[in-house]
UniProtKB/TrEMBL annotation:
Gene3D superfamilies: EF-hand. Transmembrane segments: none annotated. Residues 100-135 form the EF-hand domain. This is EF-hand domain-containing protein. Residues 1-25 form the signal peptide. Keywords: Signal. Pfam families: EF-hand_1, EF-hand_5. It comes from Azospirillum formosense.
Length: 135
């Protein structure tokens, strides 16, 4: 009887692990699909890259993506800006509102454009989103 209990426990543990792996993979797949859709929305001319102009044209979409708690203000943990840069933009209230955000779009784009070609490809854009999410 004890042997059967061990087998059952082992099977349950294996099933739970499988379900966890499947759920993690599904979440990653959903996030990847969402990122691809965001990129497509920013890529107005559908040429496979986001130019500075396209980025600026859609900067409020970017703001709402960064604003994880949807309070219409960005805190330091919702951006990938260095602490001193964030502080200089945010001012006394410690938050970046929509007006202040519009002033930093150029800097964010340039920082994300790691190959300095004036465009964000899918990889650079994905890295930007990953940095934002992991903060």
């Amino acid at each position: 009887m004890a042997a059967k209990a061990r087998v059952v426990c082992t099977l349950i543990a294996a099933l739970a692990m499988h379900m966890h792996i499947a759920a993690t993979a599904a979440a990653a797949s959903v996030e990847s699909a969402r990122d691809a859709r965001i990129f497509e929305l920013l890529d107005d001319d559908q040429d496979g890259s986001v130019s500075m102009m396209e980025f600026k044209n859609n900067q409020m979409l970017v703001f709402y993506i960064l604003d994880r708690n949807k309070d219409l203000a960005l805190t330091a943990d919702e951006t990938f800006l260095p602490t001193d840069v964030f502080a200089s933009i945010a001012g006394a209230d410690g938050k970046i509102d929509t007006i202040e955000f519009l002033d930093i779009v150029d800097s964010a784009f340039k920082q994300a454009d790691t190959n300095h070609d004036g465009l964000l490809d899918r990889q650079e854009f994905g890295a930007l989103l990953k940095r934002v999410r992991n903060r």
